[in-house]
Design brief:
- The protein has two domains: 233 residues, Rossmann fold, CATH 3.40.50; 61 residues, Histone, subunit A (Orthogonal Bundle).
- It contains 14 helices and eight strands.
- The protein has a six-stranded parallel β-sheet with strand order 3-2-4-1-7-8, with helices on both faces. The protein has a two-stranded antiparallel ribbon with strand order 5-6.
- The longest helix is centred in the last third of the chain and has 24 residues.
Length: 313
């Protein structure tokens, strides 16, 4: 690890546990700038469903890696690593301190644990693969992947369009299976990371909060936000942006697949499943400090854990 530089502070945890509120409180006390670790907040026009901080909040506390891409784009973990590294360097060059905040574990794992050196994305090749998939279907494209990269196909679901597309693209560009390239990971940043996680013990309470939170998003106009995305005419439910939790279920409702009540129920269930996956990943992660967000003293513990580690206390 790089010596002589302060560690990079990370505040993570499952969705709906108050990460943003704690980060904002810390940023009002210390010279912090927030680097978002959220795969939905990178997309423009996806504000309500991603719980994106308002323009007013972002004017008070600088945020990075928000509104980077149009929803018709595929934003990868590799792009996140590059953008996060640039944001961290920029923040530190101005004498301020980055605080990474968010719950997209794929991004966090890539940044901390390293990422494979994969070929750059090819828009033309992706369009070609999409055209072939429209004719043959993604299960057929999955079978094609199995012929050139059996290990990758074994761990990718036949309907996971984004990952099938990327694996086929990597093989077509470089001639090497993505499964082989992914074995050769390298550290994204030669830095120490101090990871603090909000990990609720009361899952029943978390589930209730997630249901209430989604109801608040609906009241704030989430359905209209999804309708506006659909009315653009250039997006489908195969786009990674539209597969985000909440957006995917409301999109299906607008397409006539099921009622609004069913869409909401499915979105809440998917949000709970997402939180479960996030907690499972965090529990398997070494060298992190965890705090129960429902403990009245958790803010004090998080503050000491993060700010003490980066020498701001």
């Amino acid at each position: 690890m790089s010596r002589g530089r302060r560690p990079i502070a990370v505040l993570t945890g499952p969705t709906g546990t108050g990460k943003t509120d704690i980060a904002l409180a810390l940023a009002r006390e210390f010279p912090l700038e927030i680097v978002s670790v959220d795969s939905a907040q990178v997309y423009r026009g996806m504000d309500i469903g991603s719980a994106k901080p308002s323009a007013e909040i972002r004017a008070q506390v600088p945020h990075h890696l928000i509104d980077l891409a149009d929803p018709d784009a595929s934003y990868s973990a590799g792009q996140f690593v590059r953008d996060a590294a640039r944001a961290i360097e920029d923040i530190e060059a101005r004498g301020r301190v980055p605080l990474l905040v968010g719950g997209t574990m794929l991004y966090l794992r890539a940044l901390i644990g390293g990422i494979a050196a994969l070929p750059e994305a090819s828009a033309a090749l992706r369009a070609q693969i999409d055209t072939q998939a429209e004719e043959a279907g993604w299960p057929a494209m999955h079978a094609r992947l199995a012929a050139v990269d059996p290990p990758a196909a074994a761990r990718i679901h036949p309907n996971d369009a984004q990952r099938i597309q990327r694996a086929l693209e990597v093989h077509a560009v470089g001639g090497q299976p993505i499964s082989e390239l992914q074995k050769m990971t390298r550290p994204a940043l030669d830095r120490e990371f101090v990871v603090t996680a909000l990990l609720p013990r009361d899952r029943v309470r978390l589930h209730a909060i997630l249901e209430q939170r989604f109801a608040q998003m609906m009241a704030a106009g989430l359905l209209d936000e999804v309708r506006a995305l659909r009315d653009r005419g250039d997006l489908t439910d195969d786009h990674p942006s539209i597969r985000a939790v909440g957006y995917r279920q409301l999109w299906a409702h607008l397409a006539g697949s099921y009622s609004l009540d069913t869409a909401v129920a499915r979105a809440v269930a998917a949000t709970r499943q997402l939180a479960k996956r996030q907690m499972t990943w965090l529990r398997s992660m070494a060298n992190i400090r965890t705090f129960d967000p429902y403990d009245a003293q958790s803010f004090v513990g998080v503050r000491e854990s993060l700010m003490g580690a980066v020498s701001l206390l």
